[in-house]
Amino acid sequence: MAALSQRKNRWPLALAVVIAIYAIATGLLVMTLPVKDGVRDWFAPLIAGGWMAWSFPGAMFFLTIFALLSLMAVWEYASPGGNPRVGILRFETTRGDRLFVSLLGSAFIHLAWLGLVGPNVWWALALSFVYAVGVFKLV
Q1: Distance (Å, rounded) from C-alpha 126 to C-alpha 48?
Q2: In the chain, what are the domain boundaries?
Q3: What is the mean pLDDT of each run of 10 residues along the chain (139 residues)?
């Protein structure tokens, strides 16, 4: 029982650490953006002449995936998931399963958006967020 009490007291600190790391990493990424004609170039390579063209959106994508996985770990630490549940798709899922399904579905939403609409993916991001909320509520 004492371990459960300590767990309930420590998870806000773990949550704050994950959010702080995400905010600091985002700030560092913004500070490393190349400046062209006095304006930050959001899509320029972050490492000039590097072997891979890391751009700000690509780096933010992977940083956000890392943050989501870290937040899921904090959530599981604070409140263990317990038994899987059966949702609208009629198979058992845990929180981690639902996160995976929402990330995978979001990837397909973005790919379809790129193929059918074009490179402006802000609406695809909003649609993916609605999809993820639906997955967590219904699946």
Answers
A1: 32
A2: 1-80, 84-139
A3: 64 91 95 89 83 84 92 87 81 89 94 93 93 87
